[in-house]
Amino acid sequence: MAQKLSNILLMRYRLSKLKDATEEFLHSVFRANTYQAGRLPGADDHDPHDRASSGTAASSTSGGGGAGTGPGVSGVVRAAYRRALAVYEQPLTEHMMITGPAMAPTINRHGIKDPAASERLVIRLLRHPSPRNVLVGDVVAFHSPLATLDDTHHIMVRRVAAVEGQEMVSSSDAEPPFIIPAGHCWVLADNTHLRVEDGEVIDSRSYGHIPYSNVIGRVVYAAASRHDHRPVTNNPEHGSEGALLGAGEDEAVVAAEVDVEGMFDEGEEEEEEEEEEEEEGEQQVEGEDEEDRERARRKRERERQAQKPDPAARLRKHDEEEGAEEGAEEGAAAAGRQQPQQPQPPQQQQPQQQQQQQQQQGGKEVAPEGRDSGAEGQGQGQKPGAGTGVGLGGRAGEEAGADGSRGAGAARGSGGSGKAAAGKDTPQ
């Protein structure tokens, strides 16, 4: 029995696909004929008999392979057949997600308490929605009339409450009854606890009737999880009342194309792909940050290199400083030698020369400062009784100065040994 039922459902499913393919074929042929009729000579003529005769002549000419304005009957039929075959090979359903409590408890009943709750829906696609396949009581997915023309992602799900030609009577006396115009339907939310006046829900009470062309398809199945899923109730003509070969269309479509496990596996794969795309985007941003940091590091390195003095320049500066110090020392020594000196007797100059020779032989550790200061002591110690020998080499320079004060000798301080040649042996 189960195998027999499966065969019946499969046959009913194939009949549904054949019905869609037939609708596509007829629609393609009708559209091609309408397009050709609009291009025929006399298409703008208001005489219907002339338009019919012209259309017949053009069609016969085109069909016979003459110079017609269209591709010909055979070409139209071939194109329509190709489109119908493509429709037959495609699935009858597609999946989408729904959030919000507008259709609770029929769809997404958990959305009443949890605004983040969502359900996966199976939509029976309607390629050419019309009063024949959009019926009162159907739960349909449609493009929102509040969206812009290029916004194809703003999709709403509502239940059809009325179709073209039906009269709508408002519960408010302030609003008069009206008739739904041709090619339109009236949709409402299932959740009666939401108030349109407070902006809690949006449906035809907010934006009015919607055209059939906005309808995408009929919702036939809803799944909140692998363990919480169920078919969606629509007009009975799509179910048991419209059963053909013992099975309704929605039942056959659900049996043939709905795979709950596959729905959630596909959803998990999509989520993983989205996460991978987000991670790739984050890695790309991090890479850009790394490049920015590397550029900043190189810039700081260049600034530090610019602030570092050149070693050659540092050596040149050191040499210049040493040269300046030596120049200052030589200037000070020259100034000491240029002081006026009183002539000394030959007897005094000879001991002084001997003393200088002794100092050159034994005072090799005399500092430059000691030599310069000793020169100053020599210049000042040549006055009898007023010599003050100043030596920076040690205390011996002071003693030499003291001896120079008793005589007319020259006192010089020896820096390394602390010895001084006293002038007390100089004859007065």
TrEMBL record:
GO terms classed as biological process: signal peptide processing
GO-annotated molecular function: serine-type endopeptidase activity
Region (Disordered): 38-70, 264-428
Skewed-composition ranges (Acidic residues): 264-292
Compositionally biased region (Basic and acidic residues): 42-52, 302-320
InterPro entries reported in the protein's UniProt record: LexA/Signal_pep-like_sf, Mitochondrial_IM_protease, Peptidase_S26
Biased composition annotated in UniProt, kind: Gly residues: 376-395, 404-418
SUPFAM superfamilies membership: LexA/Signal peptidase
Composition bias type Low complexity, residue spans: 330-341, 349-363, 419-428
Superkingdom of this protein's organism: Eukaryota
Protein name per UniProt: Peptidase S26 domain-containing protein
Natural source organism: Chlamydomonas reinhardtii
